[in-house]
Amino acid sequence: SQTIHQWPATLVQPVGSPLSLECTVEGTSNPNLYWYRQAAGRGLQLLFYSVGIGQISSEVPQNLSASRPQDRQFILSSKKLLLSDSGFYLCAWKKRSENQPQHFGDGTRLSIL
Amino acid sequence: GDSVTQMEGPVTLSEEAFLTINCTYTATGYPSLFWYVQYPGEGLQLLLKATKADDKGSNKGFEATYRKETTSFHLEKGSVQVSDSAVYFCALTPRQGGSEKLVFGKGTKLTVNP
Fold first, then answer.
1. What is the structure's pLDDT at A43?
2. For A83, left (φ over 0), alpha (ψ -120 to 50), or beta?
3. For all residues of chain A together, what is the average pLDDT?
4. Which of A70, A72, A100, B41 is deepest in the core (most CB within 10 A)?
């Protein structure tokens, strides 16, 4: 069966520090991969998605970036965090065929001080 | 563009009450429709899905029917439990190739009291 792992589960970082969140998927190949952010009390905002290694599409302009160095690995990064980057970050994957749902990881709660 | 509108809540019910969370959508063609549930402090879990008109998705006592004529996908449960307390998201995937991004509603928080 397929599983998705995100880490860390919780992170507290000072303003201006770098960020690296990692997501890996097991038990499938060539998945679509997604990064979402959920601000407190709000819905989900799609940040990035990837349909293959090295292929990243950005949905909103921001100081975050994403990379996909391997087929089942998706990394969310920042060189300098802002206070507004606080939130709950969720990684998701889906099979690359029609009508398939996305499956989410357990999320990373990021607090910026 | 494609969008999902769901009742904002919060919704507070007593145990064993009937639940309806309304969801309507705007999309070109025939999207796939989903309900996700998020328990406190956790990620999203797929609750049920429907991929074509008149399909009924069901899971854990929850049901939703894909109504093309009313562009709706309302979530229902006949008798809620305290453990159903969570935030529920309605979502669609446009029937297009490529990224197959999910378009989410804003979520409805449900609290079930004993």
1. 79
2. alpha
3. 92
4. A72
Distance from CA of A107 to the nearest CA of B (A): 5
pLDDT digits (tens, 9 = 90+) for B60-112: 999 999 999 999 999 999 999 999 999 999 999 887 655 678 889 999 999 99
Among A residues 54-113, those touching chain B with beta carbons less than 8 Å apart: 57, 90, 92, 94, 96, 98-107, 109
Is the Cβ of B3 closer than 8 Å to some Cβ of chain A? no
Token pair 């990394």 is at which residue? A75
CA distance A38 to A55: 23
Task: Please tell me the predicted confidence (pLDDT) of residue A60.
Answer: 81
Mind giving me the DSSP string for B25-57? EE-SS--EEEEEEE-TTS-EEEEEEE-STT-EE
Instruction: Sort out which chain A residues have CB atoms less than 8 A from B106's CB and list them.
Output: 42-43
B66 inside 8 A of chain A by CB? no
Closest by CA to B113, choosing from B77, B81, B78, is B81
Token look-up 């996908």 returns B73
The verdict on B8 touching A (C-beta cutoff 8 Å) is: no
> In this complex, which of A32, A98, A99 lies closest to B99 when CB atoms are compared?
A32
CB contact under 8 A, B99 and A98: no
